[in-house]
Amino acid sequence: MLKKILFIITIITYVKAQNNVVDNTVEWNSDFNHQSLTITSTGALTINSVVTSDFGWLTIENGGSLTIRGSLTIQYNCDNDNGGSLTIQSGGSLIAATASGPVVYTRNLNSDNWYLVSSPVLLADQDAFAVLTANSISTGTGNNVGIATYTTSDDSWNYMQSGATGTGTFTPGKGFAVKRQSAGDISFTGTFNTDDVRVPVTSGFNLLGNPYTSYIDGVLLLSEIGNSGISAESTLWVWNQATTSYDAFNMAKPMIIAPAQGFIVKANADGEYSITKSMQQHSGDTFQRRRLRTARMSKIYLTVSNQTDARHARIYYLENTTVGFDVGYDGELFNGVSNPLAIYTHLVADSEGKNYQVQSLPPNNYENMIVPVGINAVSGTAISITASTENLPDGINIYLEDKQDNSFTRLDADSSFNTTFKNDIAGIGRFYLHTTAGTLSM
User: Fold this and answer.
1) Cα separation values, 55 from 76, 85, 381, Å
2) Stated pTM of the model
3) Ranges of each domain in the chain
4) Other C-beta atoms within 10 Å of 152: how many?
5) CB 431 within 8 A of CB 375
């Protein structure tokens, strides 16, 4: 009876796919040709043979995924508008071993703020992208258009100019900043990229991006960057438009990088980073969001706020990390911009004066690991420092020491440190974080 039920389910699933809608997990061993196909937000289709769309339309909706283990050919006849096309909606994902033909990828930007993005397709024309009415690119002062590339030499932005032509196509693996007039989609039109990408970088911060129509594993990317021999640290930074600040991601806080996601890496020499097709995977949409760790770990999440903005720093307690610098597990605060409001830490041992947004420490000896905490804030502004925790050992309390006021403030759900600085403050030396089972007071 069970075999009969499974056989019926298989037949129904196959027929549903043949009827041009895939809304669950399906593996298809037959060729697909000359028909339309929609993969819904719950659909995951794997085709092990040949896909040819001469007259059909393939659509992958947000959350849907298509894997082509054979080959994919999209043929489009521009003369009579009669031919196949492939549209991947924001959050959709495609991995193809071999593919050719036109593809359109859309990425939703849910505000009129700046975003870091990259083209997930090859040969996407910058001029066409800028003037496409549907993209609704913003305009700024003078002739500035809401598209900008990052200049590593002086950490500045080079804005596209209104009416500029001949700017060419987007470079695979290179990122850029974009700003719409209002929330909505941006659309990239080009051809498939199924090859490895080698992205040239120069010493300093470089804006890169995902060059594929699929997600890429941030852990594999960070490993490649760390093994490149030209990386200052295995960290990438993503612009968070909601907080107008950069978030650091590394092995302690990994991220699956969505199609069209731009990110910043730091090189200590000129060279190349590799973004390889072996890094591709399918995932739920992670644009501007990290993937969640499945492993249980202890964490302290520090926040400084000035009643208008908030900034964060994180301390993780992980096996095989040290109180000094751990490549891939300690991530600096992004310093390619000014940080008038910031919270960060310095290494517990062997500090070189660097400000870390992410610091990883061993999950033991809590009592003896005192973490220097740095604050940037302007004078006359009321600020609040809070802490939230996950999975700390029972009985461990968190205290913020203020050496200037000779005080200890316990940070928990019911208590925070509040003050108004008489002078601008920046750097460490005043505040220290204690983790202890005891009670601290002056």
Assistant:
1) 8, 8, 63
2) 0.90
3) 2-100, 107-294, 298-436
4) 18
5) yes
